[in-house]
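Q: What does the assembled structure look like for these inputs?
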Amino acid sequence: MNSLPASRFWLWGRRIAAVVILLLLWQIAIMSDSLPSMLPSVAQMLSGIGEALGSKVFWSSLGGTLQAALIAWLLASIVGVLAGLLIGSTPFAYRSTHILIDFGRAFPVLALMPVVIMLLGANTTMQVVVVGLSCVWPVLVQTIHGVKRQEAAVMDTVAIYQIPKLLKFRRVLLPAAFPFIATGIRISASIAILVAVGVEVISQAPGIGRQITLMQQAQRWDLAFAYLFFAGLIGWLIAVVLQRMETRLLIWKRQHND
Amino acid sequence: MTSGTVSSQRVVSRSSTKRRRPYALWARKIWVSSWLIVVLFALWWVLSAGSTNFFIPPLQTILEVLARDLTNGVILSGAVYSLTNLFVGLMVAAILGIGLGLLLGEVRWLRGTVDPILHFFRSIPQAALVPMIIGVFGIGQSPKMGTIAFACLWPILLNTIDGVLGVDPTVRKFSRVYRIPKNMHFRRVVLPAAMPQISAGIGVALPIGITVMVVSEMFASVEGLGYYILNSSATFNVPETWAGALLVGVIGYIISLFYGVIEKRTLAWYYASGAP
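A:
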């Protein structure tokens, strides 16, 4: 039903109207002085966004944040999948590590940052370590979950036909675990961006988060809002793109489910 | 040794556990799930024992400092401050998130309209809000609660919406056919059905809240666990920094364990129903 052009048109019309109403409310609140005076008006925010887009600092800080997040995400995905396959396929390893994994998941890694800064300094390596430590858990947990969640009938078939270990691993375990792994990797991408910006806010690591703090301290609230806007926009874009990719990659799975 | 035989052996041993209740098996189970932690802890203790690196103090020193500050109340007052912020923030987020979520889940056109806005706000890095909100509203306690509430709101809200959408259509039809009043329909039909998903949302919000709690105290504060960590690192009290970071981790873990227990209790009907 949504594919009808008219209904799509109305949907987007309503969505745009909602954004306009939100901005109007903000503007009214600013003009009636019911918000603190340093907050920028809508026009100032828009000009801030324009100014940010035209400045070199913006692009280099965006690059810095994305680079750190990307490296950490890739490392975390590789480590998480490999460790998850290992732990998930050996019951002893699973039983030995599950408390440790629960602990790691619950650990607010940003609290560890002062320690990591002392050890590594406030640089990109530190940022990659902190981001990696934060976003490895979804991949690890999802991979373990995916590997452990094999259908009994399939496992029995594999056992009866005496499928070699490596073949079983490649053709049975991996495909069955793949949807879970994909979800874990997608979630960890969002976390990577969030934490990368968070690290920059607290430490001196260069990037969007650092710019938000700097602009706020310099009383350039319009630019601080612009950077915050772009931080949210990028997180959103990444989430949407990865969700689309996941849906497309896992079409076979969905058909199987229905 | 194929996995088929392994799994059948496990079934056998489990049933024998139930019959005889040997406590030796319990002890074995605890040992199997904790030996790695004991080993890692011992390794850390031994390897760091003679450490001359200023930034890597012996584990013994860290624990002594932790015990000292726990008993003299320095950490305790900070923890009370931090956890109050977390609790109030989470409560506000839960009330707003569940209320709005029920509304948006039920009203289709409204949901479609604000969907992009919700996803945009959800994607804003929570930690980046800390300097903004504190810059605007000052370094008091309520801005910190507000930041925590804002960060925790989105997972709860989005999960509530999902939960409402997941209500069995047949149940919905029954509610309509019997003309259940709107108020009762929300409270007795939709809310319980969405509860497992809502509770999962709060579970997602919990670690986010703890992180924002610590960050908000690291940024501008003279109180709390985050302040304890930041202040000790700024004054080069390295064992205190380690102790604070470890403590926050342990608190995070205990809260998540505790939440898991509450969830199991309150959603006992759900787990008993055998739903996935």
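Chain B touches chain A through 64 residues (CB under 8 Å).
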